[in-house]
Fold this sequence. Notes:
The protein is mainly beta.
Amino acid sequence: MSVRSAALPLVLLALVASAATGGAAKAEPNRAAPAPTAVKATYADWPTYHGNGYRDGFAHTMPAVSGAPRVVKKLALDGKVYAAPIVVRGVLIVATENNTVYAFDAAYRKLWARHLGPPSRASERPCGNIDPLGITGTPAYDGTRNSVYVAPEYSGAPPRHELVSLNFSTGAVLWHKSLDRPGVDARVMQQRGALTIFGARVWVPFGGLAGDCGAYKGRLVGLQRTDGLHPLAYTVPTAREAGIWAPPGPVVDLYGHLLVAVGNGASGVGGKYDFSDSILELNSSATLTDSFSPSTWASDNDADLDLGSQGPAIVSQWIFTAGKSGTAYVLRRTHLGGIGGQVSQATVCRSFGGTAVDINTVYVPCTDGLRAVHIGSTGQMQVLWHAAAATNGSPVIGGGRIWSLDAGAGLLQALDPKTGQSRGQVSVGATTRFATPAIYGRNVYIPTLAGATVVATS
Length: 458
């Protein structure tokens, strides 16, 4: 195992690019987004959660780390930041729970700030652990339209959810459309997962609030990138719950599909299968095309041990998935297998957040410390190393290091990809448990409870 300088084969890279930048359904995940102006990019952009729709979290153009990581800037913003930052041509975009979106240049001077409206307050919702609740899902940049999409939640009775398109250069609102669809109680729907650009639409996932109150249902809504019209939606066919809430949001595969992880649903032991506790595959028309659930899905539902806490990872020809139960599964990419159809399973860890992938090794955010898991040619898993217990944040890869947060101590760790040992750390300030870094050039960008912290790596 070694961290590569050139990642997936070029034929694979060419299939996924639009998920990050808004091209056709087939494109390259880590390539710099098409510039709306004639600007030469030195480094690959990071226009969405984990850098691309493939969600591999690998910054291939990050120079090799040559010194101790150090904080070069702390940006104090008007609210807590749960969403991961994105970076395009050196411009940093950060969105807060106060429903404000900021843009900073390479010298961290504010280019613009756009406040979209008052966020939802805790008193307006029957449960939840974010107050105020504004923009939580990671934004997405659309290179073909020079726009940034965000999904704020607004104060109201009930609270409202919208998709907003902003001009990347000025922050001007281009359009805004409702994401609330019939059949659920908007008060208890929460938008936490990252937004994804796929085909002609922006896809926005929904789950419930902390506490699982009310009649929410897992849902994926797709609005046209041009104007927000002609919505499509897929709702998990359960009586309630089955949230699509993992921070990575929908993952774009190589065959024109979206993959989502689904949480526990209403049906338990003795009940009818309801596509909860699953990995679901959807096409660009929001139609279910394939699925996987553990054979223990019903008892896992009853015990809140679902797969929905970690986004699915594409690892070569396999899908790796793990969740709250501690059991990890490897699935065939071309056929997820239905109920109990995994290629292999193993006890690995309880996992929350987003993975990072280097060819056939997946770095897994485990509650008791990051793990490196190798997936062999037959789909069998081997744990290569287990990092210190406190280093459990969603990892990203760049510069010959695995970057992961120790949220409890407010530390960013630089881990050796061969051993998992720390090769440096730096204090970045208080973060959420799901805080996920972004990478551009030599820098790592951290969302914090005060704003954002910029860490230089050489």
